[in-house]
Design brief:
Layout: E1 2-15, E2 18-31, E3 35-39, H1 46-54, E4 61-70, E5 73-74, H2 80-86, E6 91-94, H3 108-123, H4 129-142, H5 148-151, H6 161-175, E7 179-183, H7 191-208, E8 211-216, H8 219-225, E9 228-233, E10 236-242, H9 243-248, H10 253-260, H11 300-304, E11 309-312, E12 315-318
Parallel strand pairs: 3-8, 3-9, 6-7, 7-8
Antiparallel strand pairs: 1-2, 1-4, 4-5, 9-10, 10-12, 11-12
Length: 323
């Protein structure tokens, strides 16, 4: 059953240098209990997509067209008063720097109690602090925090990066959202903690039947967390499909380049291939296919004609090679 449907979403930023076309006609769906990994280089539009879904875009951003349907409700047109009822308990977002999401002058206990209180008020339940504390301790154990009774009486600066990220995940679970958006939540963590957080999210997805949008620049991370993968380039979706299909046999040249640049196990593989050039300016994006200046298969058609997102072998791909 579809929980989220994004239809033809286009977003721009107004800057001193011109209008940035951050998202261009983005469309996809997410079912209840499903996870989708959104992959791409910096500047591809991944974080803008997450902020646009959550209605957390900065003041210089504007929705040009499209809809964001959450349980059938168009969030783009929803008044702020009603939007507050959806944030947290409907859609919860974890950012790249979790410490910035916690108040440094309040203990973890106070911040998690506030999350439970907000949820209960929205659902019409009577708030009971003792009951809330028991739920908080139980949830902190769910996210593999040892000695939660001690942790809740600490301030954010007294916790490690991995502990803070677990606290934010716990806060999301306490809010009981239907959609969990994680914007590169493991990029600031070391490899060992990163693996633990990814396993934790995967376990919690099954246990709580969470729908997850996981934003990352790392295809290896995406392959662990996602049921489906959506590859973005220069504000557009260039490939989307089942994670195993895309990783095993990528269609779009950009996806092929991303996978080709991943290091393998063998130390004799030689120099890793790279994708030449860089993500184009979204103030003046290239004509035709936005990837054509970096594509080894580019033709005159690619330079002149904008490729459409077409369904090929149960996946969507934006490339003239598959027209």
């Amino acid at each position: 059953m579809v929980l989220l449907e994004v239809r033809g979403l286009s977003v721009i930023y107004r800057t001193l240098f011109g209008t940035v076309k951050a998202l261009d006609d983005v469309s996809f769906t997410l079912d209840k209990g499903e996870s989708i990994a959104v992959v791409g280089e910096s500047g591809s539009g991944k974080s803008t997509l997450a902020l646009a879904i959550s209605r957390l875009l900065p003041p210089n951003a504007r929705y040009v067209s499209g809809e964001v349907l959450f349980d059938g409700i168009n969030l783009v047109k929803l008044p702020q008063s009603k939007l507050r009822m959806i944030r947290g308990t409907g859609i919860f977002m974890v950012f790249q720097e979790p410490a910035n999401s916690l108040n440094p002058v309040y203990k973890i206990r106070d911040q998690l109690i506030e999350a439970v209180k907000v949820r209960m008020i929205k659902s019409g339940e009577a708030f009971d602090e003792g009951k809330a504390l028991k739920e908080i301790i139980s949830t902190l154990r769910d996210v593999r925090i040892p000695d939660p009774e001690i942790i809740i009486d600490r301030y954010p600066h007294q916790l490690s990066g991995g502990q803070i990220q677990r606290v934010m995940i716990a806060m999301g679970l306490l809010m009981r959202p239907r959609l969990y958006i994680a914007d590169e939540p493991t990029s600031a963590l070391d490899v060992t903690v990163q693996a633990q957080i990814l396993k934790l999210l995967k376990d919690l997805k099954s246990e709580y039947n969470l729908s997850i949008i996981f934003i990352t620049h790392d295809l290896a991370v995406a392959s662990v967390i996602g049921d489906r993968i959506m590859v973005m380039y220069a504000g557009q979706i260039v490939e989307e499909g089942n994670i195993d299909d895309v990783v095993t046999k990528p269609y779009h040249p950009y996806t092929q380049g991303l996978l080709g640049s991943l290091p393998r196990i063998s130390k004799h593989e030689g120099k890793l291939p790279i994708i030449g050039g860089s993500v184009p300016s979204l103030i003046n994006p290239p004509s035709g296919c936005r990837f054509h200046p970096r594509c080894p298969y580019a033709t005159d058609t690619c330079i002149k004609v904008i490729p459409q997102l077409k369904i090929t072998d149960n996946r969507r791909v934006r490339c003239h090679l598959y027209a």
